[in-house]
Amino acid sequence: MDGDAVLEIDDMACIYVEQSRPSNSLEQDARHGLLTAPRSMPPKYFYDKYGSLLFDKICDTEEYYPTRTESRLLEAHASELIELAKPGHILEFGSGCSRKTHFLMRACESININCEYLPFDVCEEVLCQVRDEYAERYQWLDVKPLVGDYTAGLDGLHRPKGSCLYVFLGSSIGNFNLQQANEFIEEVTACMLPGDSFLLGVDRVKSTQVLHQAYNDEDGLTGEFNLNLLNVLNDRLDADFDLNKFKHKAIYNEVQQRIEMYLISESIQTVNLSVLDESIDLNKDEEILTEISHKYTYDQAESLLTDAGLHILRHVEPDNAWFSLVLAHKSL
Ligand code: AVJ
């Protein structure tokens, strides 16, 4: 019936989550990060259309173990995790294409938990696709996409009524430095009511060789992904970065327990950033830090959640201990 169809679309319309803190514009981030050394840009600008496609391809490479390792863990443990959390709502930060969330939905389905899915992401276009795909595949499921930037504060988050499982997968937490990671988890915890839980996917400390290969894949996809940031800057700042004059570098910093990804200037060069009305002079071998990806030990992965006052319900890892899924809850 026509009326029903309209109602259904209305019910599942995207909700815009208001920022509770201003987040920097690309122009501000570029001014702050690029005009003086040491230079850097936040990793969120990787993900234009081409960057998102490249990231998807990275996830399918042999070297980039996190995606498949986490997927297998979810596949093996989704049922017990869902049974522990008993969610009325599943709210996922940085849901992207929601490829891994299917494991959680199937687990809900198999034990007849009727819940609502709230994917939270910056990209409305992808959120709408996810909504349609999930609504079609899981007829019992309500999908309420949340459009917004989860790094810009969570006060604007409409908190669902009934028990909620907050999900943050893919070791996206690794892009935060340690302080930011703690702050973000505290913010989520502040949204939680007693009985709510938090499922966190965390990449683990491991051999430098395995880590190095994961960020230096044979086909050069990670390099392309990194260099694509310069395309984004050329586009949005009307800049003139020459991609042939930069190279990709990713190293594991054992002291800081993190991958550091850089773009290296291969010669002395001047780059114009027209929109900023500025130019920058780069030395040969000068670095621009484009991403950090923090790795955690088993105990550190738990501390992320327990330091915020949550209690661990379950912590699963594969035999090689390369990745952790930690489920914690706020006690009653
Ligand atoms: C999406 C932030 C988890 O840090 O491993 C993959 C991004 N960068 N290869 C990561 C990324 C280069 C990824 N995260």
Major sheet description: 9 strands, mixed
- Helix percent reads 25-40%
Number of contiguous helices: 10
SSE sequence, one letter per element: HEHEHHEHEHEEEHEHHEEEEEHEE
Total count of strands: 15
What is the averaged pLDDT score? 95
Strand content: 15-25%
Radius of gyration: 21 Å
Q: Which kinds of small molecule does this entry bind, naming each only once?
A: N,N,N-trimethyl-histidine
Distance N to C terminus: 44 Å
Q: What best-fitting shape do the alpha-carbon axes yield?
A: globular
Quaternary: single chain
Structural class: alpha/beta
Detail the poorly predicted runs: 1-5
In short:
This protein has 332 residues and is an alpha/beta fold. The protein is built from 10 helices and 15 strands. Strands 1, 3, 4, 5, 6, 7, 8, 14 and 15 form a 9-stranded mixed sheet that branches.
Secondary-structure blueprint of this entry?
Elements: H1 2-11, E1 15-16, H2 26-34, E2 39-40, H3 49-59, H4 65-85, E3 89-93, H5 101-110, E4 116-121, H6 124-137, E5 142-143, E6 146-147, E7 164-168, H7 178-191, E8 197-203, H8 208-214, H9 221-237, E9 246-253, E10 258-265, E11 269-273, E12 278-282, E13 287-294, H10 298-306, E14 311-316, E15 323-329
Parallel strand pairs: 1-6, 2-13, 3-4, 3-7, 4-5, 4-6, 7-8
Antiparallel strand pairs: 8-15, 9-10, 10-13, 11-12, 14-15
Helix pairs in contact: 3-9, 4-5
